[in-house]
Each structure stands twice: as C-alpha cells, then as structure tokens.
Amino acid sequence: MQDTDELYREYSTQVYKFVFSFCHNHLLAEEITQETFYRAIKSIHRYDGTCKVYVWLCQIAKHVWYQELDKQNKRKADPLEDSSLSESSHSTESQFILAQEKMDLFKQLHLLDPHTKEVMYLRMTGEFSFREIGEILGRDETWARVTFYRGKQKLMKGRMS
C-alpha cells in the first residue's frame, strides 16, 4: 500500500469528481473528499486488496455522502440554498425555463433503475469516462456504455411522450 501523501495525490481528484457527481456542490464535494481520505487513512489496515484502491475510496466516499444526506434530512435544509441560477446572465424567464427543464430531466432520471441512474449521474454530472464508470461500479467499460445508451434512449422516449 502507498503512503498517505501519495495516496491522496494519486486519487483525490478522481474521488472529488465522483463525490461531485452526487452532491453537485463544490464546497461539499471538497469536504466529503477530505473526510473520505481521513477515514481511509484511519482504516487503512482494513483494506484487503480485493478491489482497486480507487474503488475502495469511492465506497468510503459514497458512505460519507449518505451520512451527509441523513444529516441534511434531519436539519430540513432550506431548499432555496441552491445558488446555481444566481449568477446567470439570462433573463428571469429563461432561468425559470432552464430550471424547469433541469428539474424534469432529474425527475425522469429518478425513475430509471438504480444501475442506469447511477451511470447516468456519473457520466452527466461527474463527467467520468465510461472506463472510470465501469471501474467505480465494478463492471467493464462496455457495460457502462451500453447502460448509458439505454438510459439515454429511455429518457428520449419519455420526453417525446
């Protein structure tokens, strides 16, 4: 196993991208990434080598993310905290239309089966390659490509209906 500095240098960017694909918030993604490496270093003795280090780190990151979601649900976070539209040069009307389209897309994504949904999120928001997605999910690149394509087809079919 690598030393902790080397581990962080090699995987921090990838883990950050993975986390960002779920939370869509740069500061929160940085925080969760830091917590992931903190926990990984604390439990490095439990890493048994049955999966790649990157996959192990993503498993930890996903667990930290789920804990963060639980905390947010308990706090009943303010839904107006999303500032993704605040610094746009578009008119109020076009901002509203874009927000509605984005909301519709995510509603449709939510209806997909869990594997397809995860592939779609990783590809669209985390900007992971199909190879990386396959690696994260313990599958191969072809499976990730086919799953993404089928998910995209389902979304397109749903929009035309």
TrEMBL record:
Recorded superkingdom: Bacteria
Domain RNA polymerase sigma-70 region span(s) in chain numbering: 7-74
Gene3D superfamilies named in the record: 1.10.1740.10, Winged helix-like DNA-binding domain superfamily/Winged helix DNA-binding domain (1.10.10.10)
SUPFAM superfamilies cross-referenced by the UniProt entry: Sigma2 domain of RNA polymerase sigma factors, Sigma3 and sigma4 domains of RNA polymerase sigma factors
Keywords: DNA-binding, Sigma factor, Transcription, Transcription regulation
InterPro entries given in the database record: RNA_pol_sigma-70-like, RNA_pol_sigma-70_dom, RNA_pol_sigma70_r2, RNA_pol_sigma_r2, RNA_pol_sigma_r3/r4-like, WH-like_DNA-bd_sf
Gene Ontology molecular function: DNA binding; sigma factor activity
Biological process per Gene Ontology, one example term: DNA-templated transcription initiation
Family, as annotated: Belongs to the sigma-70 factor family. ECF subfamily.
NCBIfam families the record matches: sigma70-ECF
Name by which UniProt lists this protein: RNA polymerase subunit sigma
